[in-house]
Amino acid sequence: MAVRCMSRKCAKIVLWASVAILIVSTIILILFPTIYKNQLKKDIALVDGSLMTNIWRDVPLPIYERLYFFNITNEEEFLNHGKPLNVTEAGPYTYSSRWVKYNPVWHSNGTVSYKEIRTYQFVRSLSIGDQDDIINTLNGPMIIAADILKNYNIGFRIAASILLKLNSENIITQKSVRELVYDGYEDTIIKFAPLFKKGLPFKNGRFSWLYGKNATDDGLFTVFTGVDDQSQTNMINNLNGFDKLNFWKGDSCNMINGTNIEVGPPLPKNPQSYTFYQTIFCRSLTFDYTGDETHFGIPAKRFKPPKDIFANGSDNYANSCFDLVEGRPSGVLDVRPCQFDAPVLLSFPHFYMADPSYRKNVHGLNPNDEAHGSHLDVEPVTGASVDVQVRFQLNLQMSRVRGVFQFDDVLEGVFPVFWVGLEIQLNDDWANFFKSNLNNPKIIAYSVLGGLVVISLILIIISLVVLRLSNIEDDDDPLIDVKEEHRENLSKKVIVPNYDSSGSYEKSNPSTGVSNKGLDLSSETKPAMSKAAEASVLTIHPTTP
């Protein structure tokens, strides 16, 4: 009986403890999404010391810039006979990059200002050749000079043309990759160009396509931190103190929209597009959502440029304010306004998604989406970019200039110089970092809480069964707990009293006929009889034989 009571007591304790665990676990399960969301909001806000800020300040993902040059193979036919340009692609020449935001300053209005220094280092193992490889390419300074000379009278043009000839300048030149990319080379035209056109950025008489872009910044950016509004995380508020550009003809084209491509706000459940700003394009670009991707187990939303992103105003009215030349075929972006009026146009590599007319003047191009398309894959919970492929091509507009005889016979048009592939890719180490900070907390929390709910339910069921069985056993027990030896005495000593006329009784032995008079029911003769048993004794008068 004592063991059974102990079991019932334990069962009750387990029952109530399990009920308490079940209630608490269920409440936490219900509240966990809100708790997780609030903690995540703190982690991804661009505030000093947050998880996302540490990533944002010094982008830890591998960043590469891959350059491909167009090597000219028919110089004579192109220059003297007006033939299309024949090219072969040389590349990639790969540079690893590091993007670091130094000394960010946080403001009370929920913004932070910074300058981002981008450095580039050549990686021979990821390149097709060395930086000393020679490229037969278009002479950028010569073509830019001819374009400037269009604004001068014919006499001045002729004199300039003679000087160019004496200086052995030609439309096509041979330079090393090193000279064409970051190191640059001394050029007579570049030395004197600022005398004829104010504001040109050439320094020290040196020229390269990316000269002055290594270990430098693109200006002072101010972005929203996302503390007040998570949907504004890392959205650009202004650039160099201005909330819009002044390059284009309309306000919509001059708007600085979106992020800087590295980090953005968490994505909505069904995103439609993603907008970002990169200085090289002198405008914001909007990519459209095309589907879901997975990188090292990390889910992402993919965005790609629409076919009309560089369309002219006739094909895409929203681009009307980007049109600088009436009737120019779709597929290129004239960036003259932000490139010191140099005849520079951007497109996708090999004129991918551009009007076919651009490829008529250039032989050797083979555009396709896999090699020349762009995309942006964004992890939806944090808004971090986990796979970036932004590819663009730099082209020069070449025209005949009366008086500059070097251009008398050239084929007019837009010609490619090189194209760049900007790559930011998630690796295994950073995939594990994302998992441990994003997915694992949810998995652990739901596993533990779910396990507690299941275990508590099992314990509740077991406790109820134990209590029920205990009650059934109690119902089967006798009402009077009589010791076994007393039960035996009662069964052996059956007393049949016989009272005489004096009030005494005798107990007759049926076998001997002997009677015992005066025998009373004392404690000695009826040790196992209770008062209730005595009251029920029958008086029996046996007959004489």
Automatic annotation (TrEMBL):
GO terms for molecular function: scavenger receptor activity. This is Scavenger receptor class B member 1. It is a multi-pass membrane protein. The chain crosses the membrane at residues 13-36, 443-467. Keywords: Cell membrane, Disulfide bond, Glycoprotein, Membrane, Receptor, Transmembrane, Transmembrane helix. One of its GO terms (cellular component) is caveola. It is found in: Cell membrane; Membrane, Caveola.
